[in-house]
Design a protein that fits this description.
Strands 2-1-3-4-5-6 form a 6-stranded parallel sheet, sandwiched between helices. A 3-stranded parallel sheet has the order 7-10-13, sandwiched between helices. The protein has a 3-stranded parallel sheet with strand order 14-15-16, with no helix packed on it. The chain is built from 14 helices and 16 strands. The chain is an alpha/beta fold and 346 residues long.
């Protein structure tokens, strides 16, 4: 008998990719997607904790299912992703009719966890270790999730796809929860990335966007060999069906010359560089713990102009950050005027 799945995704490109992989694994268990939660045997919410609004939206959606769950106790409601990792069992306190809580590092367990709930009716929780609850290696392994299953039907178009090359983050900006919800920064093995790119090409994908929290920080050390993002671009560039390669999001201090040269020299690489500045004020950047100065950012922009003069650079800004003065806001405005970003996310 075909089982029915409803999944709702909020947040970043990582979440969109996570949802694609979860759906692919559940399809193998006989599930098909439906349009509304009330049609489903299993309802999943893939969550984000970067903004309060994203969490409020999930709790609002959960609230609409309270009566439905009372009428259909055999149906499964699950919360997955960053909010699940951050709040864990607190979600049960606020929405006691939820059956399943799964962090980003345990998404591959979802088919088995749903089966257990349907078999015995008990709640299931699967989350990663927090940053102080074990050895560095144990914490990394608990956050690692690289499910190779891909599902073209979950993409807005079959010709474009995301490809994760890195998980986690070690930057610890004061406003960001990602280092806690997605764990330590670690890169995937290069051969696994290239193999997945080939799978995507075989599925008809023409454009691949490489994903990482700070994607240009990618490093993979194997013995004496270190693979960088520039090396990955070159390897994926050799896959014939792929016509365009992009990568997001970048960290200013890791915009290296070898990476800029790769984008310049490899025709398939899009000269689009998303490198958030966040503020034009050094004082605000220090409060954000961004780890670079406006002078560092300007030096990066000068190197981009020298090595990749046709590049389109995009940025992010946080306006009204804690303690921001009118003068500090004007410094951000001046940066926008000076650098003439292709676009900025505010």
């Amino acid at each position: 008998m075909t089982k029915r799945l409803y999944i709702e995704t909020v947040g970043c490109q990582m979440n969109a990719l996570d949802s694609e992989m979860v759906v692919a694994s559940l399809r193998q268990q006989g599930y098909r997607l439906v349009e509304t939660p009330h049609e489903a045997d299993a309802v999943l919410f893939n969550t984000c904790s970067v903004r309060q609004h994203a969490e409020d939206k999930v709790y609002s959606s959960l609230g609409t299912l309270k009566q439905w769950k009372r009428l259909h106790p055999e149906r499964v409601i699950g919360v997955m992703g960053c909010m699940a990792q951050k709040d864990q069992r607190k979600i049960f306190e606020r929405a006691p009719y939820v059956d399943l809580i799964v962090g980003p590092g345990q998404l591959h367990q979802i088919p088995d966890l749903i089966a257990r709930i349907q078999a015995d009716g008990g709640r299931q929780v699967a989350v990663s270790l927090d940053r102080t609850s074990g050895s560095a290696e144990a914490i990394k392994r608990s956050h690692e999730t690289f499910d190779p299953l891909r599902d073209p039907a979950m993409r807005p178009t079959p010709f474009q796809a995301y490809l994760r090359i890195q998980i986690g983050c070690d930057k610890f900006c004061t406003y960001c929860v990602v280092p806690m919800t997605r764990g330590p920064e670690q890169g995937r093995r290069p051969r696994d990335i290239v193999a997945e790119a080939q799978v995507l090409a075989d599925q008809g994908c023409l454009e691949i966007t490489l994903l990482g929290q700070t994607v240009n920080s990618y490093r993979y050390v194997d013995g004496e060999r270190t693979t960088r993002l520039s090396d990955l671009l070159e390897a994926i560039h050799d896959i014939d069906p792929i016509r365009r390669i992009k990568f997001v999001t970048n960290y200013p201090l890791d915009m290296t010359d070898d990476l800029l040269d790769a984008v310049r020299d490899l025709p398939k690489c899009s000269p689009y560089l998303h490198v958030p500045l966040q503020s034009g004020s050094d004082a605000v950047l220090r409060r954000m713990k961004r780890g670079y100065s406006t002078a560092d950012y300007e030096a990066m922009m000068e190197r981009i102009a020298l090595r990749l003069p046709d590049a389109a650079v995009a940025s992010d800004f946080i306006i009204g950050f804690c303690g921001e003065t009118e003068q500090e806001f004007e410094q951000s405005m001046e940066a926008v005027r000076r650098y003439r970003f292709k676009n900025s996310f505010i």
